[in-house]
Design a protein that fits this description.
Layout: H1 15-23, E1 30-31, E2 38-39, H2 42-47, H3 51-56
Antiparallel strand pairs: 1-2
The structure holds zinc ion.
């Protein structure tokens, strides 16, 4: 099920902090659990895995 017209459901625990950080020109990042890179995009950040690592499937 998708709901995109109302409030986006973002399972991102740091979304609020990030929103505040961005006001100060900063960003919140989490580390990719696969390659250790820093992730700042909300989706990848919440997943703790970059786009390539999510597809690559190194478990
Ligand atoms: Zn990665």
């Amino acid at each position: 099920m998708r709901q995109e017209n109302s409030i986006p459901i973002e399972p991102d625990p740091v979304a609020r902090i990030d929103a505040e950080a961005r006001l100060h020109g900063a960003r919140i990042a989490t580390r990719c659990s696969v390659c250790g890179r820093w992730l700042v995009a909300p989706k990848t950040r919440a997943a703790h895995a970059g786009p390539k690592c999510q597809k690559g499937g190194v478990k």
